[in-house]
Amino acid sequence: xxxxxxxxxxxxxxxxxxxxxxxxxxxxxxxxxxxxxxxxxxxxxxxxxxxxxxxxxxxxxxxxxxxxxxxxxxxxxxxxxxxxxxxxxxxxxxxxxxxxxxxxxxxxxxxxxxxxxxxxxxxxxxxxxxxxxxxxxxxxxxxxxxxxxxxxxxxxxxxxxxxxxxxxxxxxxxxxxxxxxxxxxxxxxxxxxxxxxxxxxxxxxxxx
Length: 208
Ligand SMILES: N[C@@H](CCC(=O)N[C@@H](CS)C(=O)NCC(=O)O)C(=O)O
Hints:
The chain is of the alpha+beta class and 208 residues long. It has two domains: 2-87, Glutaredoxin (3-Layer(aba) Sandwich); 93-202, Glutathione S-transferase Yfyf (Class Pi), Chain A, domain 2. It contains nine helices and four strands; from the N terminus they run E-H-E-H-E-E-H-H-H-H-H-H-H. The protein has a four-stranded mixed sheet, covered by helices on one side. Helix 1 (10-22) packs parallel to helix 3, helix 1 crosses helix 9 and helix 5 crosses helix 6. It is globular. Bound molecules: glutathione. Glutathione (GSH) is lined by residues 9, 11, 33, 38, 50-53, 73-74. Residues 9, 11, 33, 38, 50-53, 73-74 line the site of glutathione (GSH).
């Protein structure tokens, strides 16, 4: 059994989608980040960086020892779960590396930058034109990169649906928040509609 600490945000949904798609046994524990529950000392033992998602695996693979094993950072959790389940990380070396490259692309850009856009467009009390322009422009650049890649590839890792898609999709699902019209990115739209129709994705989006 895996304890899954989460909240209904894109970074949480990456992992809930993977847990649903892979069929691994888990129990979700909501961490209400609007009430600062991520600073609870018990949660900090699992993730010292005070952010969701995080997991504790009570039956880790033998290489991790016999005690419950915890993992934080959504990208690392996805790799851990892919290796544990033997699913959604291609076995073929170039496709595996392609999946990891696009996972890192999401973790370093298509998430942090989109989050900044959400902050300056929706939440900041002071509207700062420089910041809004900087992050909406970067958001559009990232969508253009994604659209170009998906013009030549069915999924981010090529022919196989992988953890790179699961990491990127929940951020794309917030496209209205970062002022993106998917109609302007037809290859992203094709990929988005295909993935959002998957039952495992739909169940994952319902957690917690
Ligand atoms: N790089 C981290 C980012 C996680 C993250 O930003 N989580 C947000 C919610 S989406 C959070 O817990 N925020 C609470 C806080 O910053 O105190 C990951 O991918 O796991």
